[in-house]
Amino acid sequence: MSTHRFFIPQKWIDKHQVTLIEGTAHQIRHVLRMRVGDRLIVLDDSGWEREVELTHITQNVVMGHVVEERLATGEPRTKISLYQGVLKAQKFEWVLQKGTELGLVEFVPVVCERSVVGDLEDVDRKLGRWQRIIREAAEQSGRGRLPVLRPALLFGQACQRAKRSGGLAMVMWEAEKSTGLKSALAAGEGGEDRPFSISIFIGPEGGLTRDEIEAAQGYAVQPISLGPRVLRAETAGLVAASAILYELGDLE
Q: Domain 79-247: what homologous superfamily?
């Protein structure tokens, strides 16, 4: 059975002593029913993980000592940011969960012309729940860092941000016929080092408009085809990210 993992605030760690409180302590005692002598892993979002042996368990506090500290191995070399058009109901949450498991390092909700959710404030009200989904997925999948969830942006603002961030930026578009993902990655490498950071743009359920694609190109965001089949908005980003990680050797 795999060792339970918990992302915790750095202040809960004092050299070789770890103190777990609040919801984490409740889960350890009442949900997982762990006992003194059991071991778990704590992470402070630094990329390091600490294996902890429990020494003291009360109603509201769990304490333990660090028996080993090591570099977490769950982070991909290629840093992929997903600019995802806001989706209906639980679809966006599914993207956050599976994207975290896959290894994405950043999510940016994007409000597009055809987005069902057109109010940035409505999107921002969901950020707390979305953060919890990311944290739980990161713990389950062995990540060493929490993916960053950015505030929602309008499509044009998102393109501007991707350009400022640098790296390779691509927008997946079903009407693109000439440039595929593999060739775009090869061109991005330019015969030199592999791309270190990649931004992927995915539209909402209704897709992106031609005006949005032209605007993206103005910010050096390149339209890319994912093949002859039309993928759902909640699927396309995960397919693209999986293909990128495989092509660049991050799934080996």
A: SPOUT methyltransferase, trefoil knot domain (3.40.1280.10)
d(CA 108, CA 111) in angstroms, rounded, equals: 10
What φ, ψ does residue 152 adopt, rounded to 5°? -65, 145
Q: Residue 143: beta bridge partners?
A: none
Task: Please tell me the total number of residues recorded for the chain in this structure.
Answer: 252
Q: Is 198 left (phi over 0), alpha (psi -120 to 50) or beta?
A: beta
Distance between CA atoms of 57 and 140, rounded to whole angstroms?
Answer: 23
- Looking at every residue in the chain, the average pLDDT score rounds to 90
- Residues 63 and 13 sit within 8 Å (Cβ to Cβ): no
Can you name the CATH fold of 5-71? Ribosomal Protein L25; Chain P (2.40.240)
What proportion of the chain, given as a percentage, has pLDDT over 70? Answer: 94
Residue boundaries of the structural domains of the chain: 5-71, 79-247
Res 1 pLDDT > 60: no
Tens of pLDDT, residue by residue over 181-198, are: 888 888 755 545 667 899
Strands (E), the chain: 5-7, 13-14, 17-20, 39-43, 48-57, 62-71, 79-85, 106-111, 148-149, 153-154, 168-172, 197-202, 222-224
Give the pLDDT confidence of 95-108 residue by residue, as tens digits: 999 999 999 999 99
